[in-house]
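Section 5.1 Outputs to date
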Amino acid sequence: MASSHLSFLLFSLITFSLSNAAPLPPPNALHLPIRKDPRTRQYYTELQMSTNTTYVNVVLDLGGQNTWFNCDHYNSPSYRLVPCNTNLCRTLKGVGCVSCGTPRTGCGINTCPSNVYNPYRNLLYGDGYGTDKLRTLSTDGRFVLTGYDFNSYAFSCADVRLLRNLARQTVGMIGLTRSTNSLPKQLSLAFKLPNKFALCLPSSSKNGVGDIFIGGGPYVMPPVIQDLSKSLTTTPLLINPVSTAPAYTQGDPSDEYFIGVKSIRIDGKVVSFNNSLLSIDKNGNGGTKLSTIARYTLLHDSIYRAFAAAFVKAAAAKNIKRVAPVRPFGVCFSMTRANGSVPYVDLVLQSESVKWRFYEANSMLKVNNTVSCLAIQNGGLNPRTAVVIGGHQLENYLLEFDLHCARFSTAMKTEFSTMLFAEFLVESFILENDVDEIPPQAEAQPPPPPPPPDNEANEPEIPNATNEHDPLEAEAEEEYHSAHSDSEVEGEPDFSDDEFQPDAAT
């Protein structure tokens, strides 16, 4: 089926390129691919930058505010520094000026300042903003179509040391928050698209790639013929009143994406814990946020222990045998074909009728031929956020962020998109449409709805549960390495599935 789509796409592009002499119409939506690195389990996309066509791989960060990458090998004739005290600098929220004694790519005299942050290492670095051409492809929700150039995409350069713990084939990160510096916001403003974007994170890049849609749907991903925008479960996006950024001004709200979870159910039964943890308090603590940086969902210690105990009980009712834990997980099971389906998990959202359901593919992770583990971890006794929904749980769902209406929507996607397999055909017949600069725009953010009431509950013990630290920290200290090196680095952590380690006992 995919080959027929590709043939039709190729024919359409040839016909359009030969017959179209008028300026291109504005795109309805834009598209970028997402791939998953099997070693680090990080998600990344490829940016086509500069007038001399330089390809840059950057790790996706749903909580990141801007785009940054190492510019040591970035030589672009179209690169320009952003001067401080300009409209563009104010749009990018640059405060003050930075200057370098010896001007270079990323820093010059009186340059608009930026912050560069690597959340995997908790490293913050200051530099300056620059702009360059970014090419993206338009989409009708089914195919990638024509190329559009944004000539003033704003990003920052970063020291090579900021690349530690990033996937080896990447040289930086790209932020997707509601900040004006983020990729979705810059492109939606530049091309006058609706202020929304959608992600579909792949569980593997072996059989296909994921998608970033900017501007909204439809979302029709061959060979699936349904428009997933017609089957979305929707819930309000909440505003955390206190910034979660590594550097911010007092009074700034968070740019990250929080949703309201009222309760958690396993096979339809409520998990009992202190529900007040699910509310965001006046200091910005608690609540539930979405993250592509956390590899697996993290739960506050008391929530995790209650959840794990309830999951073990529900699994036992299905004759699924618990076995010794395999690090970094605390609860594992013997999984054979004789087993029934594992318990499903519901996050109950704004009402009992609105649920986000996770089945085995998202709640469990196979660590060897006979053992699968609960892919949810203990986030500690005092985390800033009580529930962090991590990448594994987000995979193969369509995730739509409507920033204009402050809504988050999701739908399960059962097939990988073949859309990006057509990109090599598009490249030879690409058509260009240039946009020069981000138009300044301010958009008010709606206040969050009132928090749910407290629900004090006993917290059942889960025997032998591993109290893991935040998986954002590497399993081992990584040695310094260049992102352009293909050789293995001694001491660098390997997150491939064959590296799971069994604990001594259950």
